[in-house]
Amino acid sequence: MSEQLPCKHLVESLSDYVDGTLDENLCSELERHLRECEDCRVVVDTLRKTIDLYHHTNPTPSMPVEVRDRLYQRLNLESFLKKRG
Amino acid sequence: MNDGSVQQTEFSLAALQAGDKAEFARLVDVYSGPIYRLALKILNDPLDAEDVLQETFLKAYRSLAGFEARSSLSTWLYRIAVNEALMLVRRRHPEAISIDQENDSDESAPEPMQIVDWCCLPEQEMLTAEVRKFLDEAIQRLPESLKVVFLLRDIEGLSIRETVDTLGLSETAVKTRLLRARLNLRNQLSAYFGERLTEKKRI
Predict the structure, then answer these.
(1) Which CATH code is given to the segment(s) B13-92?
(2) Which residues lie closer than 8 Å to A2 by C-beta, 6 or more apart?
(3) CA–CA separation, B147 and B168 (whole Å)
(4) Does residue A59 belong to the interface with chain B, where contact is any CB pair within 8 Å?
(5) Which residue does chain B place closest to A11, by CA atoms?
(6) What is the pTM of this model?
(7) Where do the domains of chain B lie?
(8) Quick check: B44 contacting A, CB < 8 Å?
(9) Chain mean pLDDT for chain A
(10) pLDDT confidence of residue B94
(11) Burial per residue of A20-29, b for 16 or more beta-carbon CB atoms within 10 angstroms, e otherwise
């Protein structure tokens, strides 16, 4: 699916395709192409896997308690923080 | 979408606009986590992220009276947070390209596609701490204008419509940036996992 390939215009549809929101006609055109083009198949599979990895591994730790405490103090909401224990 | 995404919660707008502190505390309780996480990912600095978090809710509290409910409360909060975060980015890196520009300056130079099929790697090799670290770093390598779109849509789980409302960009611009962000990350992961596949073959 590099620039010199005829399937270049299909690249534009890939996000919608993996999100399942691609227009029906374009979708059939893309799927027909995928049956013939190994490179595009790899791109679609690895694109899907990439998004999948980001959806299922959220490496950011949650907000530290002290950050939360300081936020409530700044907003003068300490009493609600205490109530929650 | 992912575990961190926020379920839509009902708030009483009347109570919020009347300055009801308990209702505002409930709003803070639901959205402070996601907003902190988003700011941390945009800025990659815990102190800056905390600043953005505090400023977002201070501004929200002050401007609630004028909130006209044209978008949801969550979209409105995300918009304040993104604006605060991008203001800090610009202050820290004045050379960074503005997210507001509809025309992307590097449109003409797509990267060559990496064609490596790494989907066959065993699941446990893709979920290690090292991979997670790489996933995080890969986001940080995205150009600012692509990064924010990806974070809102694929990490925070906003819809295209909500991302459009949050960033004030056209739907076409959001979709184009999302695609470019995803392809960029796919390329980075392909290079990364491709090396592992090569190493495996050598052993």
Answers:
(1) 1.10.1740.10
(2) A8, A39, B112, B113
(3) 15
(4) yes
(5) B179
(6) 0.87
(7) 13-92, 123-202
(8) no
(9) 85
(10) 79
(11) eebeeeeeee
- Altogether, the residues listed in chain B come to a count of 203
pLDDT at A1 over 90: no
Report residue B94 as tokens.
Answer: 């004045």
Q: How many Å apart are CA B72 and CA B27, to the nearest integer?
A: 13
CB pairs under 8 A between A and B: 119
Tell me whether 0.90 is exceeded by the ipTM: no
Most A CBs within 10 Å: which of B21, B38, B80, B117, as the mutation test of the A interface?
B117
Contacts of B161 (CB under 8 A, 6+ apart): B171
As a whole number, mean pLDDT of residues B7-36 equals 91
Q: Give pLDDT tens digits for B132-155.
A: 999 999 999 999 999 999 999 999
Cα separation, A68 vs B40, in Å, equals 14
Is 1.10.10.10 the CATH classification of the domain at B123-202? yes
